[in-house]
Amino acid sequence: MTATTMTTTNVPGIRVKGRTDPARARAALARPAAFGQTLADLMVRVAHDEARGWHGAVITRLAPLSLSPAAKVLHYSQEIFEGHKAYAWPDGQVALFRPELNARRLNDSARAVGLPEVPVPLQLEAAERLVDLLRCWVPAAPDASLYLRPAIIGTDPSLGVGPSREHLYFVIASPVGPYFSDGAIAIQVEEERPRAVPGGLGAAKTGGNYAAGLAAQQDALARGYDQVLFLDARRRRYVEELNAMNVFVVEGERTLVTPPLGGTILPGITRRSILELAGELGLRAVERPLPVEDLVAGLASGEVSEIFAAGTAAVITSVGTLGYRGQRRLVGDGGAGPVAARLREAITGVQYGRTPDTHGWMRVVRSAGEVEPALVNAVG
Ligand SMILES: Cc1ncc(COP(=O)(O)O)c(C=O)c1O
């Protein structure tokens, strides 16, 4: 084994100990399943402890994890995750969308729950090597992609409440199609159960936040809605976000409004990309608090012409119906809105290699031969 000293700046090589089965990939891509139900057959694993830091980086066949039932993650939710995608381009290349932002956000989330950061170069290398080996799993169908799910968990097998001293970083992958099957979704405003609190973990991508939203989501689903729109915890008045997406409102024809980040909202990468693109599309983007009653009044007066959700999984999805205090209100004509459609085309055009990447957002996945040898098989 080549010695590699792990520090936060030192990137270990990633050993490859398994091969994908292309027949299995072909079969999986031939019958698209619900989001995240089909997993590709390789995964990345990297272990961490205090003495060795991150070590033993390896890509293996997908397999269940072996964890003590006392592992901290199972009791105290010491876990964080990310979500980003690899896209098949018409010229045969495969590219990742802004993966360094996901890597940095994973580390922001890690700090928020006392987990160790994974060096950004190691995260990028893990994503690139995994996708390179899983090229046959990247779907070429419209609106489809290979979704990557990196995560860090506390694996320490002891029940005392405290931060874990042993950890696992892993990355799994799933070929996915559109998150929502219809053009526009119905969302229900949740007034009783906030998702995140000031000073809490709302800005981190940690499982507990999602657990906090699941009962409200269950109710919304039972009433025929697709998603929940959460309000701020203190006043129960200001619009925050959905359970896996940020929210935007279109006022008039050209003004985009989204709630400001203040620690209770996930700083979405799609959200950020929309704010960066808006000017180029002749839109004015504003980050300001959005009282729910103003939103409802704006729908009634016609001042609010569109609402849409933005996130990696759903890209940009129009909201066709808003449920508030037991009443369903149509947004516009209830279908996909024109501003959402333009933004969606602008972002997906870059993601799928149809339009030039003038912002330098895409990272083309190199094949192993093109990668610096020091980064491949240096550990083992
Ligand atoms: C709670 C929440 N808000 C917003 C988003 C959108 O973030 P992004 O655009 O980075 O996917 C996500 C998904 O990651 C999320 O889970």
List the helices and strands and how they pair.
Blueprint: E1 15-16, H1 22-30, E2 42-49, E3 53-61, H2 72-76, E4 79-81, E5 84-88, E6 94-97, H3 99-112, H4 120-133, E7 145-154, E8 166-176, E9 184-190, H5 207-222, E10 227-230, E11 246-251, E12 255-258, H6 269-277, E13 284-287, H7 292-301, E14 304-311, E15 315-324, E16 327-330, H8 338-351, E17 362-364
Helix pairs in contact: 3-4
Bound molecules: pyridoxal-5'-phosphate.
Characterize the structure shown.
There is one protein chain. The chain is of the alpha+beta class and 380 residues long. Strand 5 and strand 6 form a beta hairpin. The strands form two sheets. Strands 1, 2, 3, 4, 5, 6, 7, 8 and 17 form a nine-stranded mixed sheet that branches. Strands 9, 10, 11, 12, 13, 14, 15 and 16 form an eight-stranded mixed sheet that branches. It is 24% helix and 27% strand. The protein has eight helices and 17 strands. It has helices spanning 22-30, 72-76, 99-112, 120-133, 207-222, 269-277, 292-301, 338-351, and strands spanning 15-16, 42-49, 53-61, 79-81, 84-88, 94-97, 145-154, 166-176, 184-190, 227-230, 246-251, 255-258, 284-287, 304-311, 315-324, 327-330, 362-364. Helix 3 (99-112) crosses helix 4 (120-133). Residues 83, 241, 244-246, 266, 268-271, 311-312 line the site of pyridoxal-5'-phosphate. Pyridoxal-5'-phosphate binds at residues 83, 241, 244-246, 266, 268-271, 311-312.
